[in-house]
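Fold it.
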Amino acid sequence: MNEGRATMQHVATLAGVSLKTVSRVVNGETGVSEPLVARVQEAVERLGYRHNLTASNLRRGRRTASIGMLVQDLSNDYCGQLLGAVEAVARQRGVVVMSASLDEEPERERELVARLVARRIDGLILMPATEDQRYLLPEIMAGLSVVVVDRAPRGIALDSVSVDNRTGAADAVRHLAGFGHRRIAFLGDDSHISTALDRRAGYRSALAELGLEPDPHLDRLGIRNDVDAEEAARAVLALPEPPTAIFTGRNTITVGVVRALRALGLSRDVALVGFDDFFTADLLEPGVTCVRQAVREQGETAIDLLQSRLDGEQGPPREVVLATTLVARGSGEIRGPHPA
Protein backbone atom coordinates (compact mmCIF):
# COMPACT_ATOMS: atom_id res chain seq x y z
CA MET A 1 0.00 0.00 0.00
CA ASN A 2 1.24 3.51 -0.82
CA GLU A 3 2.06 5.53 2.29
CA GLY A 4 0.09 8.49 0.94
CA ARG A 5 -3.15 6.53 0.47
CA ALA A 6 -5.82 7.07 3.10
CA THR A 7 -6.89 3.96 4.99
CA MET A 8 -9.95 3.08 7.02
CA GLN A 9 -7.85 3.61 10.16
CA HIS A 10 -7.02 7.16 9.01
CA VAL A 11 -10.74 7.82 8.60
CA ALA A 12 -11.47 6.42 12.06
CA THR A 13 -8.78 8.58 13.66
CA LEU A 14 -9.92 11.79 11.96
CA ALA A 15 -13.59 11.13 12.71
CA GLY A 16 -12.83 10.12 16.32
CA VAL A 17 -14.71 6.82 16.02
CA SER A 18 -13.83 3.15 16.10
CA LEU A 19 -12.60 1.20 13.10
CA LYS A 20 -15.72 -0.95 13.37
CA THR A 21 -17.95 2.14 13.06
CA VAL A 22 -16.14 3.25 9.89
CA SER A 23 -16.48 -0.23 8.45
CA ARG A 24 -20.22 -0.28 9.12
CA VAL A 25 -20.70 3.14 7.52
CA VAL A 26 -18.67 2.47 4.35
CA ASN A 27 -20.39 -0.89 3.88
CA GLY A 28 -23.85 0.68 4.19
CA GLU A 29 -24.80 -1.21 7.33
CA THR A 30 -27.50 0.05 9.67
CA GLY A 31 -27.24 0.78 13.37
CA VAL A 32 -24.97 3.83 13.24
CA SER A 33 -26.38 7.14 14.45
CA GLU A 34 -26.75 9.98 11.95
CA PRO A 35 -24.18 12.24 13.72
CA LEU A 36 -21.57 9.46 13.55
CA VAL A 37 -22.39 8.76 9.90
CA ALA A 38 -21.93 12.46 9.15
CA ARG A 39 -18.55 12.52 10.93
CA VAL A 40 -17.33 9.49 9.02
CA GLN A 41 -18.56 10.90 5.70
CA GLU A 42 -16.79 14.21 6.35
CA ALA A 43 -13.55 12.39 7.19
CA VAL A 44 -13.84 10.25 4.05
CA GLU A 45 -14.27 13.34 1.89
CA ARG A 46 -11.42 15.27 3.54
CA LEU A 47 -8.98 12.36 3.21
CA GLY A 48 -10.09 11.31 -0.26
CA TYR A 49 -10.54 7.76 1.05
CA ARG A 50 -11.74 5.20 -1.48
CA HIS A 51 -13.37 2.05 -0.21
CA ASN A 52 -12.06 -1.24 -1.61
CA LEU A 53 -14.82 -1.97 -4.09
CA THR A 54 -13.70 -5.50 -4.94
CA ALA A 55 -13.81 -6.62 -1.32
CA SER A 56 -17.16 -4.90 -0.82
CA ASN A 57 -18.63 -6.60 -3.87
CA LEU A 58 -17.45 -10.00 -2.66
CA ARG A 59 -19.06 -9.44 0.74
CA ARG A 60 -22.27 -8.07 -0.66
CA GLY A 61 -22.51 -10.17 -3.81
CA ARG A 62 -22.99 -7.01 -5.85
CA ARG A 63 -21.24 -7.90 -9.10
CA THR A 64 -24.10 -8.01 -11.57
CA ALA A 65 -22.24 -7.22 -14.81
CA SER A 66 -24.40 -4.14 -15.24
CA ILE A 67 -23.69 -0.41 -15.11
CA GLY A 68 -25.81 2.71 -15.32
CA MET A 69 -25.28 5.65 -17.64
CA LEU A 70 -27.18 8.90 -17.21
CA VAL A 71 -26.82 11.64 -19.82
CA GLN A 72 -28.77 14.82 -20.49
CA ASP A 73 -30.61 13.94 -23.70
CA LEU A 74 -30.32 10.62 -25.50
CA SER A 75 -31.86 12.17 -28.62
CA ASN A 76 -28.93 14.61 -28.87
CA ASP A 77 -26.16 13.54 -31.27
CA TYR A 78 -23.44 14.06 -28.68
CA CYS A 79 -25.17 12.08 -25.92
CA GLY A 80 -26.20 9.33 -28.33
CA GLN A 81 -22.66 8.89 -29.63
CA LEU A 82 -21.26 8.92 -26.10
CA LEU A 83 -23.64 6.17 -25.03
CA GLY A 84 -22.86 4.20 -28.19
CA ALA A 85 -19.13 4.28 -27.42
CA VAL A 86 -19.73 3.04 -23.87
CA GLU A 87 -22.11 0.31 -25.04
CA ALA A 88 -19.64 -0.94 -27.67
CA VAL A 89 -16.97 -1.54 -25.02
CA ALA A 90 -19.46 -2.89 -22.48
CA ARG A 91 -20.80 -5.42 -25.00
CA GLN A 92 -17.31 -6.79 -25.59
CA ARG A 93 -16.93 -7.26 -21.84
CA GLY A 94 -20.33 -8.85 -21.29
CA VAL A 95 -21.66 -5.86 -19.38
CA VAL A 96 -25.20 -4.49 -19.70
CA VAL A 97 -25.68 -0.70 -19.79
CA MET A 98 -28.90 0.78 -18.37
CA SER A 99 -29.32 4.35 -19.63
CA ALA A 100 -31.69 7.29 -19.33
CA SER A 101 -31.96 11.02 -20.00
CA LEU A 102 -31.88 13.66 -17.25
CA ASP A 103 -33.07 16.70 -19.23
CA GLU A 104 -31.08 18.99 -16.90
CA GLU A 105 -33.39 18.10 -13.98
CA PRO A 106 -31.52 17.64 -10.67
CA GLU A 107 -34.36 15.79 -8.94
CA ARG A 108 -34.65 13.41 -11.88
CA GLU A 109 -30.93 12.68 -11.54
CA ARG A 110 -31.25 11.77 -7.87
CA GLU A 111 -34.34 9.67 -8.57
CA LEU A 112 -32.74 7.73 -11.41
CA VAL A 113 -29.53 7.16 -9.47
CA ALA A 114 -31.59 5.71 -6.61
CA ARG A 115 -33.46 3.43 -9.00
CA LEU A 116 -30.26 2.20 -10.64
CA VAL A 117 -28.62 1.55 -7.28
CA ALA A 118 -31.73 -0.40 -6.22
CA ARG A 119 -31.11 -2.62 -9.26
CA ARG A 120 -27.63 -3.29 -7.87
CA ILE A 121 -25.59 -1.83 -10.70
CA ASP A 122 -21.84 -2.27 -10.29
CA GLY A 123 -20.97 1.28 -11.37
CA LEU A 124 -22.31 4.53 -12.81
CA ILE A 125 -21.27 6.88 -15.61
CA LEU A 126 -22.93 10.24 -14.99
CA MET A 127 -23.34 13.49 -16.89
CA PRO A 128 -24.64 15.45 -13.90
CA ALA A 129 -27.58 17.83 -13.84
CA THR A 130 -27.06 18.57 -10.15
CA GLU A 131 -24.75 21.38 -9.04
CA ASP A 132 -23.37 19.26 -6.18
CA GLN A 133 -22.86 15.50 -6.29
CA ARG A 134 -22.20 14.95 -2.58
CA TYR A 135 -25.51 13.10 -2.38
CA LEU A 136 -23.63 10.19 -4.01
CA LEU A 137 -21.21 9.85 -1.09
CA PRO A 138 -23.18 7.21 0.88
CA GLU A 139 -23.42 4.97 -2.19
CA ILE A 140 -19.75 5.47 -3.04
CA MET A 141 -18.80 4.65 0.54
CA ALA A 142 -20.93 1.51 0.26
CA GLY A 143 -18.99 0.39 -2.83
CA LEU A 144 -20.47 2.09 -5.90
CA SER A 145 -17.91 3.43 -8.38
CA VAL A 146 -18.80 6.59 -10.31
CA VAL A 147 -17.23 8.32 -13.30
CA VAL A 148 -18.42 11.78 -14.36
CA VAL A 149 -18.40 12.67 -18.06
CA ASP A 150 -18.61 15.97 -19.96
CA ARG A 151 -18.71 18.10 -16.79
CA ALA A 152 -16.42 18.41 -13.81
CA PRO A 153 -17.68 16.83 -10.56
CA ARG A 154 -18.72 19.28 -7.86
CA GLY A 155 -18.68 18.89 -4.09
CA ILE A 156 -16.94 15.52 -4.26
CA ALA A 157 -13.80 14.18 -5.89
CA LEU A 158 -14.58 11.62 -8.60
CA ASP A 159 -12.94 10.19 -11.70
CA SER A 160 -13.92 12.37 -14.67
CA VAL A 161 -13.59 12.66 -18.45
CA SER A 162 -14.21 15.90 -20.32
CA VAL A 163 -12.85 18.05 -23.13
CA ASP A 164 -10.96 21.34 -23.02
CA ASN A 165 -14.02 23.52 -23.52
CA ARG A 166 -12.25 26.84 -23.01
CA THR A 167 -9.55 26.15 -25.57
CA GLY A 168 -12.07 24.77 -28.07
CA ALA A 169 -14.21 27.89 -27.76
CA ALA A 170 -11.19 30.20 -28.02
CA ASP A 171 -10.09 28.34 -31.16
CA ALA A 172 -13.49 28.99 -32.71
CA VAL A 173 -13.28 32.73 -32.04
CA ARG A 174 -9.72 32.95 -33.35
CA HIS A 175 -10.82 31.11 -36.48
CA LEU A 176 -13.62 33.61 -37.12
CA ALA A 177 -11.34 36.56 -36.42
CA GLY A 178 -8.87 35.11 -38.90
CA PHE A 179 -11.49 35.51 -41.61
CA GLY A 180 -11.98 39.20 -40.87
CA HIS A 181 -14.70 39.20 -38.20
CA ARG A 182 -14.66 41.63 -35.29
CA ARG A 183 -18.27 41.51 -34.08
CA ILE A 184 -18.68 37.91 -33.01
CA ALA A 185 -21.75 36.84 -31.04
CA PHE A 186 -21.88 33.99 -28.53
CA LEU A 187 -25.10 32.05 -27.92
CA GLY A 188 -24.79 29.53 -25.08
CA ASP A 189 -26.68 27.14 -22.84
CA ASP A 190 -28.01 27.74 -19.30
CA SER A 191 -25.70 29.51 -16.87
CA HIS A 192 -25.89 26.66 -14.31
CA ILE A 193 -24.22 24.28 -16.80
CA SER A 194 -20.46 24.28 -16.30
CA THR A 195 -19.68 23.58 -19.95
CA ALA A 196 -21.71 26.61 -21.03
CA LEU A 197 -19.73 28.81 -18.65
CA ASP A 198 -16.42 27.31 -19.76
CA ARG A 199 -17.22 27.89 -23.43
CA ARG A 200 -18.26 31.47 -22.75
CA ALA A 201 -15.03 31.97 -20.79
CA GLY A 202 -13.09 30.72 -23.82
CA TYR A 203 -15.04 33.08 -26.07
CA ARG A 204 -14.31 36.04 -23.80
CA SER A 205 -10.64 35.20 -23.34
CA ALA A 206 -10.15 34.99 -27.11
CA LEU A 207 -11.82 38.38 -27.62
CA ALA A 208 -9.45 39.89 -25.03
CA GLU A 209 -6.44 38.19 -26.59
CA LEU A 210 -7.39 39.58 -30.02
CA GLY A 211 -8.03 43.07 -28.65
CA LEU A 212 -11.71 42.94 -29.60
CA GLU A 213 -14.16 45.02 -27.59
CA PRO A 214 -16.76 42.79 -25.86
CA ASP A 215 -20.40 43.71 -26.40
CA PRO A 216 -22.88 42.41 -23.79
CA HIS A 217 -25.63 42.46 -26.43
CA LEU A 218 -23.72 39.79 -28.35
CA ASP A 219 -22.97 37.59 -25.32
CA ARG A 220 -26.02 35.52 -24.40
CA LEU A 221 -26.68 32.48 -22.20
CA GLY A 222 -29.90 30.70 -21.24
CA ILE A 223 -30.66 29.18 -24.65
CA ARG A 224 -32.05 25.70 -24.05
CA ASN A 225 -33.22 24.45 -27.45
CA ASP A 226 -33.27 25.12 -31.18
CA VAL A 227 -36.44 27.24 -30.97
CA ASP A 228 -34.88 29.56 -28.38
CA ALA A 229 -31.70 29.64 -30.47
CA GLU A 230 -33.52 30.75 -33.60
CA GLU A 231 -35.21 33.52 -31.63
CA ALA A 232 -31.91 34.63 -30.07
CA ALA A 233 -30.17 34.66 -33.46
CA ARG A 234 -32.91 36.82 -34.96
CA ALA A 235 -32.58 39.19 -32.00
CA VAL A 236 -28.82 39.72 -32.31
CA LEU A 237 -29.04 40.02 -36.10
CA ALA A 238 -31.66 42.76 -35.67
CA LEU A 239 -29.35 44.92 -33.55
CA PRO A 240 -28.29 48.30 -34.95
CA GLU A 241 -24.78 46.87 -35.19
CA PRO A 242 -25.39 43.16 -35.82
CA PRO A 243 -22.65 40.53 -35.58
CA THR A 244 -20.94 39.39 -38.75
CA ALA A 245 -20.23 36.01 -37.14
CA ILE A 246 -21.85 33.78 -34.52
CA PHE A 247 -20.27 31.17 -32.26
CA THR A 248 -22.75 28.72 -30.72
CA GLY A 249 -22.08 26.74 -27.55
CA ARG A 250 -24.05 23.57 -28.33
CA ASN A 251 -25.23 21.62 -31.37
CA THR A 252 -28.95 22.23 -30.77
CA ILE A 253 -28.24 25.96 -30.61
CA THR A 254 -26.34 25.71 -33.89
CA VAL A 255 -29.38 24.14 -35.57
CA GLY A 256 -31.61 27.03 -34.48
CA VAL A 257 -29.10 29.59 -35.74
CA VAL A 258 -28.88 27.81 -39.10
CA ARG A 259 -32.67 28.08 -39.42
CA ALA A 260 -32.59 31.79 -38.60
CA LEU A 261 -29.84 32.50 -41.13
CA ARG A 262 -31.67 30.60 -43.85
CA ALA A 263 -34.96 32.37 -43.11
CA LEU A 264 -33.24 35.76 -43.22
CA GLY A 265 -31.26 34.95 -46.36
CA LEU A 266 -27.95 35.38 -44.49
CA SER A 267 -26.50 31.87 -44.73
CA ARG A 268 -23.64 33.08 -46.92
CA ASP A 269 -23.23 36.48 -45.27
CA VAL A 270 -22.93 35.68 -41.55
CA ALA A 271 -20.22 33.24 -40.50
CA LEU A 272 -21.04 30.45 -38.06
CA VAL A 273 -18.99 28.06 -35.92
CA GLY A 274 -20.74 25.66 -33.54
CA PHE A 275 -19.44 23.72 -30.54
CA ASP A 276 -20.31 20.00 -30.97
CA ASP A 277 -20.55 18.28 -34.30
CA PHE A 278 -23.83 16.79 -35.51
CA PHE A 279 -24.78 14.25 -38.17
CA THR A 280 -26.14 16.61 -40.83
CA ALA A 281 -23.55 19.39 -40.40
CA ASP A 282 -21.74 18.44 -43.60
CA LEU A 283 -24.97 18.10 -45.60
CA LEU A 284 -26.12 21.69 -45.12
CA GLU A 285 -25.27 24.48 -47.54
CA PRO A 286 -22.86 25.82 -46.57
CA GLY A 287 -21.56 23.00 -44.42
CA VAL A 288 -21.35 23.94 -40.76
CA THR A 289 -17.89 24.47 -39.27
CA CYS A 290 -17.79 22.82 -35.85
CA VAL A 291 -15.60 22.35 -32.81
CA ARG A 292 -15.66 18.56 -32.64
CA GLN A 293 -15.38 16.70 -29.37
CA ALA A 294 -13.56 13.36 -29.20
CA VAL A 295 -16.84 11.67 -28.28
CA ARG A 296 -15.80 8.07 -28.87
CA GLU A 297 -12.62 8.54 -26.87
CA GLN A 298 -14.61 10.13 -24.03
CA GLY A 299 -16.94 7.15 -23.83
CA GLU A 300 -14.19 4.56 -24.05
CA THR A 301 -12.10 6.37 -21.45
CA ALA A 302 -15.08 6.65 -19.08
CA ILE A 303 -15.85 2.95 -19.11
CA ASP A 304 -12.16 2.07 -18.82
CA LEU A 305 -11.85 4.26 -15.71
CA LEU A 306 -14.98 2.68 -14.28
CA GLN A 307 -13.79 -0.85 -15.03
CA SER A 308 -10.45 -0.21 -13.33
CA ARG A 309 -12.27 0.79 -10.14
CA LEU A 310 -14.50 -2.26 -10.39
CA ASP A 311 -11.35 -4.37 -10.65
CA GLY A 312 -10.17 -2.90 -7.35
CA GLU A 313 -7.78 -0.15 -8.44
CA GLN A 314 -7.15 2.33 -5.64
CA GLY A 315 -5.69 5.81 -5.72
CA PRO A 316 -6.83 9.43 -6.02
CA PRO A 317 -9.51 10.49 -8.51
CA ARG A 318 -8.29 10.83 -12.08
CA GLU A 319 -9.19 13.75 -14.34
CA VAL A 320 -8.89 13.17 -18.09
CA VAL A 321 -9.24 16.26 -20.33
CA LEU A 322 -9.27 15.65 -24.09
CA ALA A 323 -8.51 18.12 -26.87
CA THR A 324 -11.09 19.33 -29.37
CA THR A 325 -10.72 19.65 -33.16
CA LEU A 326 -12.02 22.45 -35.35
CA VAL A 327 -13.59 21.01 -38.53
CA ALA A 328 -13.90 23.61 -41.33
CA ARG A 329 -16.81 23.03 -43.71
CA GLY A 330 -17.67 26.46 -45.09
CA SER A 331 -19.88 28.38 -42.66
CA GLY A 332 -16.95 29.43 -40.50
CA GLU A 333 -14.89 30.52 -43.49
CA ILE A 334 -17.27 33.20 -44.77
CA ARG A 335 -15.23 36.40 -45.06
CA GLY A 336 -15.91 39.31 -42.76
CA PRO A 337 -15.65 43.05 -43.44
CA HIS A 338 -12.12 43.44 -42.06
CA PRO A 339 -8.83 42.30 -43.56
CA ALA A 340 -7.56 39.05 -42.04
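The chain has a mean pLDDT of 91.
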